[in-house]
Design a protein that fits this description.
Strand order of the largest sheet: 1-3-2
Keywords: Membrane, Transmembrane, Transmembrane helix
Low-confidence stretches: none
Organism: Flavobacterium chuncheonense
Protein name: DUF2007 domain-containing protein
Largest sheet: 3 strands, antiparallel
Number of helices: 5
Number of domains: 2
Mean pLDDT: 82
Order of helices and strands: EHEHHEHEHEE
Structural class: alpha+beta
Strand content: 15-25%
Shape: flat
């Protein structure tokens, strides 16, 4: 398999994200190839250094793949399936963030790193990409 037959359609920070979008494209009949996913699964901290997990499709399927990926919302959604609006500027460009800004979340992350387990406490906030406003929940 040579990469001359394929074109990069998307890049994701983690392989778990890439697998979801790969599955969507494959459900639409597009063959998808992942690159650098095993490296990032081994050490997720190198994701930014190597450019993340790349998804490649055949040249003939490139436009169709872009169209399919373009239909998927890139921002946080509420439980009823609508985009979350920023309470400050009312824009629908809100992302969910995991943050460490208090002692409880810091010690949870530190403890998890030492034992190589998932943290038992995670603090999350929403952040608007349009105005930068951070807020606790979508309500």
């Amino acid at each position: 398999m040579t990469l001359e037959k394929f074109k990069k359609v998307a890049t994701y920070q983690y392989s778990s994200e890439a697998i979801i979008f790969k599955g969507k494209l494959e459900s639409e009949g597009i063959s998808v190839y992942m690159r650098d996913n095993l490296t990032i699964d081994t050490d997720p901290l190198v994701s930014n250094a190597i450019g993340g997990v790349k998804l490649y499709v055949e040249y003939d399927d490139y436009e169709k793949a872009l169209s399919i990926l373009g239909e998927i919302p890139k921002f946080a959604m509420s439980d009823n399936g609508s985009l979350i609006a920023c309470p400050n500027c009312k824009a629908n460009e809100v992302q969910l963030l995991t943050i460490v800004d208090d002692a409880k979340s810091f010690f949870s992350m530190l403890f998890a790193l030492m034992l190589v387990v998932l943290p038992f406490y995670i603090k999350r906030k929403y952040k608007c990409d349009a105005c930068g406003h951070q807020f606790e929940n979508e309500k």
